[in-house]
Specification:
This protein has about 90 residues and is α+β, with helices and mostly antiparallel strands. It has helices at about 5-15, 20-35, 85-90, and strands at about 40-45, 50-55, 60, 70, 75-80. Helix 1 (about 5-15) packs across helix 2.
Length: about 90
């Protein structure tokens, strides 16, 4: 399912127009991005939580040349599924 299909499914489930469904999905994604960019966390009980994981600087190997390179420290978004979500997916 891609983003537009998700928006259509949300619109159908919520009784909205397709444009309103797209607005809801876009707003949801935007709020999560902004919250994580500000260092926050988004928790949705029963679904999961979005957070930021910190990766320390280190060394990495260029697979093409075998040369060791410095990898800078970085942040990455992380999602951890909630128990009821995992149970639903696992049947």
């Amino acid at each position: 399912m891609n983003k537009s299909e998700l928006a259509d499914a949300v619109a159908e489930k919520a009784g909205l127009t397709k444009a309103q469904g797209a607005d809801v999905v876009n707003a949801f994604v935007c709020v999560i991005e902004e919250t994580l960019a500000d260092g926050g966390e988004v928790r949705i009980p029963g679904f999961g939580s979005f957070s930021v994981a910190h990766r320390a600087a280190g060394k990495a190997r260029n697979p093409r040349t075998g040369e060791m390179i410095d990898r800078p420290a970085s942040k990455r978004p992380k999602f951890k599924a909630g128990k009821s979500f995992k149970d639903r997916v696992n049947g």
